[in-house]
Predict the structure.
Amino acid sequence: MSAAPPAPLFARVALIGLGLIGSSIGHALKRGGLAGRIVGHARSEATRSAAMRIGFVDAVTASPQEAVAGADLVILCTPVGTYGALARAIEPALAPGAILTDVGSVKAGVIEAVAPHVPAGVHFVPGHPVAGTEQSGPEAGFAELFDQRWCILTPPPGTDEGAVARLRALWEAMGARVEVMEARHHDLVLAITSHVPHLIAYNIVGTAADLEAVTEAEVIKFSAGGFRDFTRIAASDPVMWRDIFLSNKEAVLEMLGRFVEDLTALQRAIRWGDGAMLEAHFRKTRAIRRQIIEAGQESGAPDFGRHAGAGKPPPER
Ligand code: NAP
């Protein structure tokens, strides 16, 4: 007789938003048998029926209230700009004792938007899986997205420790490593590791598109010189990234200030032919790449941006 499968960690999980992250959570929950039942909600019928067809949810509902009713875990997986209105909408339907969490790439702004709508007896534990790709939608998800990636939890002071521990256990069971951090610190760290790099990519691709002296055909033809790698990041979802910059304004502006200062120093070194400064700088940055590979957050294999599993590039942010 084979051993009975492990008991699910949550009896009913509601996924609000069924795009890349919502669908990946659905797949990861199913892979580990971690949820008794998964109920999904997305605003469009097309996304809801795609989720059912792919099979990473057990049921879908047209209203977010119906999805969260009776759920012991609710995960917001929509763009962060929607969180306030969604939290207000689901507030009366949340079950006492339920854990409400999210996957938003910004944390202080999310807490500000959601916390006022969390009823007494519901535990709000904000979270952010630092894993993703430039793909979006229900077809983009896969169970392995969170394997070996970090998930950062930012419980506000006074959050129930049992609820934090249950959510930590769930993320670990989905393959992630978990770190607990203060929300504002999270936003600063992510501003430099994710948000500013995306802004730089959006900016350089935009600049190239607007050039007059170099034609667009030339930019595309000779893109292997480095530009192509920026276009992958600059292809990320426009609505999601609009919301991230609006929501993490302060931290992004602070990091951009530092970035511009350092860029000016490099500009000056080029102008004055300061090769020693340039070389020392490039040696320092190369060492950081080595540390990322050693930490298991990237493969050292040269792939020139062409990942073997097309459509499923390695986790990015
Ligand atoms: P996505 O693929 O674009 O999916 C967004 C989902 O939200 C879609 O199912 C969409 O439904 C639904 N949605 C949007 N507005 C809604 C509303 N008002 N009511 C109900 N459903 C709504 O986005 P994603 O990449 O999964 O990102 C989701 C969240 O994860 C964001 O907060 C983002 O900051 C965070 N995150 C993303 C990444 C990443 O790499 N992508 C990484 C970590 C965290 P329809 O399809 O019906 O429009």
Observations:
- The longest strand covers residues 10-16.
- Residues 10-181 form a domain with the Rossmann fold fold (CATH 3.40.50.720).
- The two ends are 43 Å apart (CA to CA).
